[in-house]
């Protein structure tokens, strides 16, 4: 801060901020003392950097880098969408009800799949959603009774590991005890199959071979 005008700008950008009660500027020492009932001093620092100067630094209290990393990781976890599976009890009388319920629920924002079971009058819904709010939306949009039976949150990492393991199993070649590759017919992939020679084929009687 070079003058009282700079000090006034700093005071203006912090005045009215949540939890800030008193602002004291020291132009000669280039310091601003902020007191109040705010939880995170770093939020005050970020506001000064955004509104006044990017060169602003937090002198006291000293920021804890480990705590900052934990907060960032927690924010990332909270921001990542969680896929949930909810089981709903609904009145399903016929195949027409099945199709109508399936189409109606899958149109709701965040829903990935809806699988109605007519025999049990149950619907398994999967997607990024809040199950209690989903029940209210179904009642409002589909005009049908719905009751939440159960819900759970899927763990994305575990599912990805399972998918990767399944893919690795699917891509693994069949081998015998001596380590020789065994090809099946018809082949899964064209690269695994050597087409049979057409030499002296019944289908191609005019073929020949030069040895």
UniProtKB/TrEMBL annotation:
Instruction: Return the Basic and acidic residues bias intervals.
Output: 68-79, 154-164
Any Pfam family matching the protein: HMA
Outline the segment boundaries, as ranges, of region: Disordered: 57-84, 149-194
Q: Metal-binding: is it a keyword of this entry?
A: yes
Q: Which Gene Ontology molecular-function terms are recorded?
A: metal ion binding
List, for all copies, the residue spans of the domain called HMA: 1-56, 83-147
Q: Where is the composition biased (Polar residues)?
A: 181-194
Highest taxon listed in the record's lineage: Eukaryota
- Keywords for the protein's UniProt record, in alphabetical order: Lipoprotein, Metal-binding, Methylation, Prenylation
Matching PANTHER family, A to Z?
HEAVY METAL-ASSOCIATED ISOPRENYLATED PLANT PROTEIN 7, HEAVY METAL-ASSOCIATED ISOPRENYLATED PLANT PROTEIN 8
Give the similarity note: Belongs to the HIPP family.
Name of the protein this chain belongs to: Heavy metal-associated isoprenylated plant protein 8
Give the organism's phylogenetic lineage: Eukaryota, Viridiplantae, Streptophyta, Embryophyta, Tracheophyta
């Amino acid at each position: 801060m070079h003058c009282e005008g700079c000090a006034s700008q700093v005071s203006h950008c912090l005045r009215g901020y949540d939890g800030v009660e008193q602002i004291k500027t020291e132009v000669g020492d280039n310091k601003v003392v902020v007191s109040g009932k705010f939880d995170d001093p770093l939020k005050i620092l970020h506001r000064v950097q955004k509104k006044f100067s990017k060169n602003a630094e937090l002198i006291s209290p000293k920021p804890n880098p480990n705590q900052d990393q934990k907060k960032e990781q927690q924010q990332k976890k909270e921001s990542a969408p969680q896929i949930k599976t909810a089981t709903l009890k609904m009145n399903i009388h016929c195949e027409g009800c099945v199709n109508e319920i399936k189409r109606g629920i899958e149109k709701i924002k965040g829903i990935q799949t809806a699988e109605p079971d007519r025999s049990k009058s149950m619907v398994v819904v999967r997607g990024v959603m809040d199950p209690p709010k989903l029940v209210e939306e179904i009642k409002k949009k589909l005009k049908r009774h719905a009751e939440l039976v159960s819900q759970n949150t899927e763990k994305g990492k575990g599912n990805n590991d399972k998918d990767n393991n399944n893919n690795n199993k699917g891509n693994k070649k069949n081998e015998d005890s001596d380590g020789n590759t065994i090809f099946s017919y018809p082949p899964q992939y064209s690269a695994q199959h050597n087409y049979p020679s057409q030499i002296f084929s019944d289908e191609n009687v005019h073929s020949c071979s030069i040895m």
